[in-house]
What does this fold into?
Amino acid sequence: MPMQNGLPENQPPEDNPAARHLIWGFATLAVVLAAITLATFEYSQHQRRQMDELAATNQTLNASLTQLQEQLQSVTERLTRRIEAENAAKAAPPPAAEAARTVRRPAAPKQVAEAAPRRDPRVDALQGQLADQQKALASTREDLDRTRGDLGQTRDELNGKIDSSRDELNGNLGRTRDELNGNIAHTHDELVALQKRGEKNYFEFALNKSKTFQKVGPVSLEVRKVDFKHRSYDLSMLVDDFTLQKKNVNLYEPVWINLTDTPEPLQLIVNQIEKDKITGYIVAPKYRKSELDRTASTTTQSQAVQ
It folds into this structure.
């Protein structure tokens, strides 16, 4: 039987300041968490690409260094063989006739020191290139190690921020859920307690599964399906001459209904599900929107006359 003598419960999330702030905070934290996760992913991809480029550069430098070492070793071996051949030719004894002529000739003044073998300039160039390549390789390795360290530190910082945001988000979500659940009556006694908390109309109903609409307060309802095992139901609603469908609605799940002449949405709650029957209530504003507008207009005119 409809009950219209109660006082309103807490406002729905759209008009309850505390719940609205919590929901906005939840949405803001969700956006922040998504932005941090996206930034972490993009930065990790950037660092991974940079590390791949450094690794490729390192491999190229190692190949160049190996090639220069091989060239230097080849040139050094050729120079060593040439110097050994020249030294061997100088140390060989002269032929007999040449030795005789050497005896008859006056002795030439002894050279003070034998000229040092000329150094091939290509050896110096290769050694210079090898030294430059070794310096570049060492610098690249240092940059690679520094980048790895920075990447690890950044990853740890971002993971810490994500964990902190997730904990805060879960906490706010839990508090919001608790506050919203506090506005739902699970039994008739709790509904009576809610009636005493404000100026709202409460309409209780007990509807069997059927194919006909039944009037409940300002709307008409029709139970299309009841799933007793999963504690859910399907419902059709006739609202302002329009038929609305709600499927797979769970026990205690609020259903918000917007009417053209109400200042805030109606709230439908089912707090008991049986085999082919549901029991619950509808919370509706006590005053219509047109009534509130007329009251506000009258108040404004009275103040203008004064």
